[in-house]
Amino acid sequence: MNTQTIKVALIGLMLTFSAYSNAGLIGVFGNNSNNNIVNFLNANGHTAVNFGGSATAAQLEGLDAVIGLRADGNNDVLNFVLNGGLYITEWRAAEWALDVANMLNADGGNNIHFGSDTNITQSGLPRFH
Length: 129
Description:
This protein is α/β, with parallel strands linked by helices. Helices cover 38% and strands 17% of the residues. The chain has one domain (3-18, 25-112): Rossmann fold. The longest helix is centred in the first third of the chain and has 18 residues, at 3-20.
């Protein structure tokens, strides 16, 4: 799976999040175009901040969601989720959530590409009311 495919999938996820939620407070940690994701979210009515390589309990306090980008989480991220916080992941961050933190009864498995490299746009997403 190439970097462009990951970015397209992640942008699709961000578009979905932006389309279906009220403006939220969102933290981003890890290392995969963090500033681009933060800028996109801020431009779409959210308040997003880049925490760099990891997130602490103090940074997560009061957030609606945290996005992990190619980085393992930690106990602070796990506690954030267990207390009702939304955790959006991709690649390595998803592996951590599934295989290390055991947030779901699932296995991250191998990185396998399904589908195509088709660009995702907000105009093609359904609306929920």
